[in-house]
Amino acid sequence: MGTAMQVYVCVKHVPDTAANIRLTGRVDFDESIKFIMNPYDEHALEQALQIKDNKGAGEVIAISVGKEAAVATLRFALAMGADRGILVKTADYFIDSRETAHLLKQAIEMDGSPGLILTGKQSVDTEGMQVPYHLAAILDLPVVVGVVAFSLAGQVVTVEREGEGDVREVIEMTMPCVVGAAKGLNRPRCPTLPDMMKARKKEIRVIRRDEFNIEFPIETTETLSLQAVPDRGRGVILENGPENMVRELLRWLKEEAKVR
Question: Count of alpha carbons within 13 Å of 212, Cβ hemisphere only?
Fold first, then answer.
């Protein structure tokens, strides 16, 4: 591996999982809520930073596809330690995973030559879990997703991924390749105030979606509607001894839950 190796980390600007999502239209929601970097992407970025720290050289580039507001997530990535950021600016929040992958590909190829591409295994908003696979396919690169252990020796990446039934698979890939990080991979660092101040001076390149000429031979996915999760109601506490509790439970199942 040369000293100029570029590691690209794909990060997504997503609503905080603790935020109260309020729908404002068929496929729209109130975007004034708190947004954060997709938590799985933090592990991907941390791994990239560790690679640079261990090698003492290289460049870590955070790249995102999204609205202008996604600059905030890129600034957070820069505060964590990324060298610079790239935003592919779109007009819509919901972008099909196939289109996202094509936009990431063109932005990466326009910028440089990746030695490694890191992503989170999925996003916590749409949970499509397709972008790493699409990106690897159109770049013709090997890919492993759900990675919980990572090592690098020369041009060979060795990873472990969690499979069914607590089984761990050990896989070797030759760089360049795509790695999708899971939460068990590492512990992401927390930026300090000086880190955040330094991040303001780092470069974020903004590329408009229409600067790319992308033709899709296969139709993309369209979001038809958003629906709020139904309120499950409050729990019921049964009291006054086992016999009364059983009687009340049967009544509740029949009259309230409508179980027949």
Answer: 23
Q: Are residues 68 and 103 in the same domain?
A: yes
Residue 223 maps to a domain: no
Distance CA 34, CA 140 (A): 36
Which residue from 230, 220, 227 is spatially nearest to 26, judged by alpha carbons? 227
CB 41 within 8 A of CB 12: yes
Residue for token digits 């790319």?
212
Residue 197 backbone dihedrals phi, psi, to 5 degrees: -70, -40
Give pLDDT tens digits for 149-205.
Answer: 999 999 999 999 987 778 889 999 999 999 999 999 999 999 999 999 999 999 999
C-alpha of 213 from chain center? 25
Q: Is residue 91 part of a domain?
A: yes
Give the position of tokens 């009291």.
Answer: 239
H/E run at residue 114: strand 114-120
Q: Which residue has the tokens 């027949």?
A: 260
